[in-house]
Design brief:
mainly alpha; 19 helices; 442 residues; 0% strand; globular
Length: 442
Amino acid sequence: MSPPLTSDLGYVPPDGGWGWAVVFGSSISVGFSYTFPKAFTIYFKELQAVFSISYSQLAWITSIMCATTYGGGPISSILVNRYGSRPVVILGGLLCGIGMVSAAFCTSIIQLYICVGFITGLGLALNLQPSVIIIGRYFLKRRPIANGLAMAGSPVMLCTLAPLNQFLFDNYGWRGSFLILGAILLHCCVAGALFRPISADKASVKTQSIEEGKEVLKEEVTKDVIEMNSPTNIRMETKTEEEEERDCCEKVNKYLDFSLFKHRGFLIYLIGNVLMFLGFFAPIVFLAPYAKHIGIDEYSAAFLLSILAIVDMVARPTTGIIANSKWVRPRIQYFFSFSIAFNGTCHLLCPLASGYTGLVIYSVFFGLAFGMVCAMLFETLMDLVGASRFTSAVGLVTIAECCTILLGPPIGVLELKSTVWGVMTRLAEPFSSSYYHVAHPV
């Protein structure tokens, strides 16, 4: 018999009602945040020819975008703690639109790094974290299902954006496509408008302020007792300095809780995710270009991402339903570990796929594994630290992950040029060693 679920937010989440509208908005924001870097790879071949650069240099665009999205986690967490999820997501949508519209006028790869990588990446960061945080405010008993549905927005977007990008590129070129994509990304502002602050949250804030007031009164009484019993003024000055340092730490922890680094479960989760994310997104970055390289036409290569997205789209809510069952939810950490192991196994077997049929089979299993991991990624963290500390936890986790996300795809390209396997198979399967490389961290 699993223990009853309790909330650490100071109120009981409604587990429904307007929360389902919040889930819908979260699915849109999360979908754009996760999908856009993947679907952007459709333009790699053309950008490589236009700017006369290597594929490794080009891969830095998506790497910088993903790293900024994750590196901006603490900034997003601080803004959410200060202003709430709604204005932060709206600001992120505006930055995404500005970044892509500006990218349409770029004349060098450095300008693309800035517009697409940094500006759009920061906008996606302000969309991702608040969209996940708000789920924990509205749901408790049905939280795994809500997280699974919200995370399902990513494959839904990927299923449509990949062919859409190819269509836009064929009809409007890469500059016209970037202008249209900038307008599409402004829909994140509409999604953010659905993140209505929950009224019970305000009551909980008042309750916390009353409790803090009581604590302050107790501290003042304690100070008076210490002052009466203190033999010297020097000891009293020392106490004052210690209290000032303590107040400073409390102000910092109010917006970003660094005491999480004392949490053993959080540290295990953090270290494991940092290693996993070294190769988590690299296979998606290389899948379509690899298919084009072995002679598959552009639309069929883009359709591989759609196959992955369709399977992923079904896997995420299904995983959420399974995780919400009474048999799995008390053991949700083990279920998450199994998902990661399954994901790594798929990448290890990928180089064995030959031809388009093999890549289709790989895309199916990879979509299943990827969906399982993504559906459980934030739910596992919420289960570890609680909803009240999740805002800080997700920011600290994402800033640690950004370095590995930044280096993952470029290392994958360098790997196939420097390793023995890469030299031996460079003419036949130049991306194979990358899949072996990214499977080991996972």
